[in-house]
Amino acid sequence: MPKETFFNLNEEKQEKVMRAAISQFSMHGFEKGNIGDIAKNAGVAKGSMYQYFENKKELFLYCVQWSSELFIKKYTRFVDLPDKTTNFFDYLYESSKTLFVQMREEKDLVIFLQDVFLGKYKSLMNESIEYMQKISDEYMLQFIRQGKENGYIRKDIDDKLLCLFATAVSYKFKEYALNKARALGEDILDEPFEAFETEYKAMIELMKNGMMG
After folding, report:
1. Would 153 disulfide with which of 2, 51, 100, 147, CB 3.0-4.6 Å?
2. CA proximity to 168, closest of 142, 126, 133, 119
3. Locate the HTH tetR-type domain: which residues (predicted)?
């Protein structure tokens, strides 16, 4: 976690530092990422960066946390079930389609997180993925419990086992979609949702067969 001095900055300045760091790591990787360049692009002194963070590793890991939390804050409204009568699986499809379009406004952060996800930062992968997985599991469990309440998810299987199944399916789909886009020399958000629609529908059907009540 950052030092208290970082949190003493106003939110706008904090965001400038984080976006500058994410841009630097995305372009140059972790090992070649330069604290001085991050400071320059954020409009702060290089020495100040070490007043905010213990080292470059701490800064990188907080980039993962900050990006993940920003997505939750900005996009949760697109995936929350509106009421108990909503079909869980139909809503999962429709909300994901909407979310795919909305996330283009944060393309740089999406690219950074997808690189973390695909193992670009190998030396820090375990610690980075651990945090992302924790957030993903918490949100998936919330979805599963809502689905059980409205009768669209079977109640005879433990929540955590259902979460494990759903997460594994969605993880492999993300990996497939990201690699498919990269094979074409693109990032996933450069492609329209329709480029993955057939496969996404198939994934939803697979989840239905394993989870539907």
Report:
1. 147
2. 133
3. 11-71
Alpha-carbon distance of 189 to 175, in angstroms, equals 14
Instruction: Specify the amino acid at residue 19.
Output: R
Domain regions of the chain by residue span: 1-54, 61-211
Looking at the domain 61-211, which fold is it?
Answer: Tetracycline Repressor; domain 2 (1.10.357)
Alpha helices (runs of H) in 33-124, residue ranges in sequence order: 35-42, 46-52, 56-75, 88-102, 107-117
Candidates 132, 163, 133; CA nearest to 145 is 163
Query: What are the residues facing 153 on neighbouring strands?
Result: 212
pLDDT tens string, the chain, 213 residues long: the values are: 899 999 999 999 999 999 999 999 999 999 999 999 999 999 999 999 999 999 999 999 999 999 988 887 877 665 565 566 667 788 778 777 777 777 788 888 888 988 887 778 888 877 887 877 888 788 788 888 888 888 888 899 999 998 888 888 877 887 788 788 778 777 777 778 888 888 888 888 888 887 775
Cα–Cα distance measured from residue 7 to residue 127, given in angstroms and rounded to the nearest whole number: 22
Distances (CA, A) of 3 to 8, 9, 24, 68, 84: 9, 11, 21, 19, 42
Q: Do 103 and 189 contact (CB within 8 A), yes or no?
A: yes
**CB count in 10 Å sphere of residue 190:** 13
Largest CA distance in the chain: 57
Residue with tokens 């960066």: 49
